[in-house]
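Hi everyone, sorry if this is the wrong subforum. Our group has a chain we'd like a structural model of before ordering constructs, and none of us has done structure prediction before. Sequence below.
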Amino acid sequence: MINRTIVLQTVYELFLQPVILFVTIIGVALLLFITFAIDVQFQGDVLLSFQLLGVMIEGIQAKMFVESFLPAAYGMTTSILMFLLILACSFFFSSEMLKNPLLPIVLTKPGRRFTVFFSTFVGSCFLVLLLVFTLTLMIWALLYTKTEGNVSGIILLAGLSFWVEFVVIFALAALLSMVVEHTAAIFILVMAVYFYLAPLLTSSSDISLPLLSNVLSYLVPPVGKITMATRDIALSGALDPGVYLSVVPYLLLFLTAAALLFHHKELSSR
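Answer:
Right subforum, don't worry. Here is the predicted structure as tokens:
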């Protein structure tokens, strides 16, 4: 079902995407910002001072500033990264991929369509996992050093949780690409789900039409819950494994439906 050569080729092609280079630049910039723009002083596990871009904040004000600064910085960083990762990966199941002149040669047997689909999906997810986990590990190492050991290693799980968000939303993108012709339309639909519908359904009490909320809850994966779980892990160390089980049916459904549609998709070398 999984072809190692296709997986490695997908990793290579995705790594060469300009967007992935931009993701890498953002990651390096974030690491440099933490290294040179932030300084903290602890006494035991008590925060004494926090310095940002040369501005020193001490005492209780430092704690209050950190509690407001970290969520904002975290939310902006993860949103930008998810935006770019989906943009980079949306090509692989688009109509452009189906126009690859080599595919009709590769797919000499019907069963190989499933191999191409799942191998491409696995390759994309594998590279994103490497990027996300490497960045998370380096951020944790820097913060652990700067805070004199006052950052828990559980923050590494936040990187894995973020990756799960990506896998689910990427599976949705793969399914949409089987029924939507244009990559831009796929990208817009997926971003609407991730940035609007999923968070809206997570706080469904705010929706004025309960019937609409119930219908959407069956169609939209509960990515918003995982987003909140990732945030809780990163900022407070709280972990709720049950949240991740709720997305398994959606992930299996999206991948199965997309693979079946890809199996019957007409290839074109035009």
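For your construct planning: The radius of gyration is 21 Å. The longest strand covers residues 46-52.
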